[in-house]
Amino acid sequence: MEQHALPLAVSCPAHKGQDDVRPVSVVYAEAAPAVLSPVPVLRSAERLAWAGTICGVIGAALIWVRAVAGGGVSGPLFAAALVCFAYAVACYGCAAVRRVSIFRVQQGMPRALAVWRSAWYCEQCDGVFFAPDEEPPGVARGELMSPGDFQELVWAAGGYLARAS
Question: Cα-flanking dihedrals φ and ψ of residue 163, to 5°?
């Protein structure tokens, strides 16, 4: 992945000074403020898949136990088994959606990181900006944005803004 060198000293567009101005990546590495994160935090789909498997096995066991015990499957037992199977399908569906979200974030990460790495944070102004001639599309020259607006910009560049809830 190609990286370009950041200038050694950049002035904040709000207070015009270089004090308290550092690259966003450095601020994030030191303090880890969630609002400067280049990607949303996504949980693994593994637990959901296991929960679906367990629910499915319980549903099958309910039917099997009643069938082995004789007398066939009763209405309430069959309803309980169906509820277990429905939960299994729901868990598998949620796990699939989560896996797709993880895949989309991974696919968009290079674009998001390109914007994220070129940004500067001014601690004094609590704002993020880009060096002159480094502004991504849609950002005005010398614009100081809030960390939240910056995160939206980065996540939109990665294509996962709408999925980051």
Answer: -95, 5
Residue 7 belongs to a domain: no
User: What sign does the dihedral 59-64-66-72 (CA atoms) show?
Assistant: positive
Q: Is 129 left (phi over 0), alpha (psi -120 to 50) or beta?
A: beta
Residues in the chain: 165
The upper half-sphere exposure of residue 68, i.e. CA atoms within 13 Å in the direction of its Cβ, equals 6
List Cα–Cα distances, 154 to 39, 60, 85, 89, 164, in angstroms. 8, 46, 40, 34, 12
Q: Whole-prediction pTM value? A: 0.67
Q: Is residue 26 part of a domain?
A: yes
Residue 60 is part of which domain span? 21-158
Render pLDDT for 78-137 as a digit per residue (tens, 0 to 9).
888 889 999 999 999 999 998 998 898 899 999 999 999 999 999 888 899 988 878 888
How does residue 73 score in pLDDT terms, banded at 50, 70 and 90? low
Give 102-128 as a DSSP string: HHHHHHHHHHHHHHHHTEEEETTTTEE
Kindly state whether residue 164 falls inside one of the protein's structural domains. Answer: no
Sole residue written with tokens 């007398």: 71
